[in-house]
Design a protein that fits this description.
The protein is α/β, with parallel strands linked by helices and 333 residues long. The protein has eight helices and 14 strands. Bound molecules: trans-cyclohexane-1,4-dicarboxylic acid.
Length: 333
């Protein structure tokens, strides 16, 4: 891509779509023409981007007949299944935020701080990982390179914004005393629901298995033992996670581990328990980095740690990561 790109946003009116628009403008992503696309239901609406209004066009099989270089997709797996290959066949590079293509062996799954080179192996589609996976990969890559990883145990505390506007609305209404269950099978206000995405035959949820499988693919190492429990909590923005890791090699002390994490791009260490300093969902909201703290030795194993990891699930977990992938493509053009 050796010109200023023409870009398309597919799912332009959704929560991730609106964050694509915000983050592209904030980061001064270069563009020539920009096309806002969505389903027939949203076509004709107007959306703002970079100080201008755009009319949303209906996504059809002819949407990519025009000269588009990069398309950022966040309109659900079904839309990506149908339209990402059509776009790719027209020479568009698709960065897809759905779970549709992530485990396809011909589709790279990329976190720019972790496996940037994979992006350049694409055949028209690059997948953006699951939100909970993305934020975990940033610290885990630093630890993997320093110490090797034997085993990872994830527990997540996921925000309702992951489910989009209807998740936010269930929590808002619930806080106001009106328990509605549009996004979830139970009230989310005052509850923790150990249920994200659908249940699979093995007893895990699809969200849990995404974390397991995507961790292997991004780190390029299937030998790491990985398990996960994913939980929806009554928080509007930012996913929090506890991550327990067992290393291959010994480490010196926790200060050494903090230094390893501090050196990782895109990662901020907030770890001063004496002053009540640790990452918080509300502070991470609106930021593009991943935050870690509560870093401490796991005394139950030879070499391992526990830590706390927080990031804005709609930014680093979705829109920002996808835009960083697009920036990589431009930087190496
Ligand atoms: O992209 O929080 O695979 O309900 C699907 C579940 C995104 C988060 C994905 C949620 C996720 C979503």
């Amino acid at each position: 891509m050796n010109k200023i790109p023409n870009i398309a946003i597919v799912g332009a009116t959704g929560l991730v779509g609106s964050t694509f628009r915000k983050v592209l403008a904030e980061r001064k992503f270069p563009y020539n023409n920009v096309y806002m696309m969505a389903s027939a239901k949203s076509a004709g609406k107007t959306v703002d981007f970079d100080g201008k209004e755009y009319v949303v066009e209906e996504l059809t099989e002819h949407s990519f007949d025009k000269d588009i270089d990069i398309a950022l997709f966040s309109a659900g797996g079904g839309t990506s299944a149908t339209f990402a290959p059509i776009a790719a066949a027209h020479g568009v590079v698709v960065v897809d935020n759905s779970s549709q293509w992530r485990m396809d062996p011909n589709v790279p799954l990329v976190v720019p701080e972790v496996n940037p080179d994979a992006a350049f192996t694409h055949s028209g589609i690059i997948a953006n990982p699951n939100c909970s996976t993305i934020q975990a990969m940033v610290p885990l890559k630093a630890l993997y390179d320093a110490y090797g990883l034997k085993r990872i145990v994830y527990s997540t505390y996921q925000a309702v914004s992951g489910t989009g506007l209807k998740g936010i609305n269930d929590l808002k209404e619930g806080i106001a005393g009106n328990d509605i269950c549009v996004a979830y099978p139970h009230p989310i206000a005052g509850n923790c629901l150990p249920h994200i995405d659908v249940f699979l035959d093995n007893g895990y949820t699809k969200e849990e298995m995404k974390m397991v499988n995507e961790t292997h693919k991004i780190l390029g190492d299937d030998s790491i033992r990985v398990t996960a429990t994913t939980v929806r909590v009554p928080v509007f923005d930012s996913h929090s996670e506890t991550i327990n890791v067992e290393f291959e090699k010994p480490f010196g002390d926790i200060e050494e581990v903090r230094a390893v994490l501090r050196a990782m791009p895109g990662l901020v260490v907030q770890d001063d328990p004496a002053n009540n300093v640790y990452p918080l969902a509300r502070e991470a909201a609106g930021k593009n980095e991943v935050f870690v703290g509560r870093i401490r030795r796991d005394f139950s194993v030879e070499s391992g740690i526990n830590f706390w990891c927080v990031a804005d699930n709609i930014r680093k977990g979705a829109a920002t990561n996808a835009i960083q992938i697009a920036e990589l493509l431009l930087a190496r053009a």
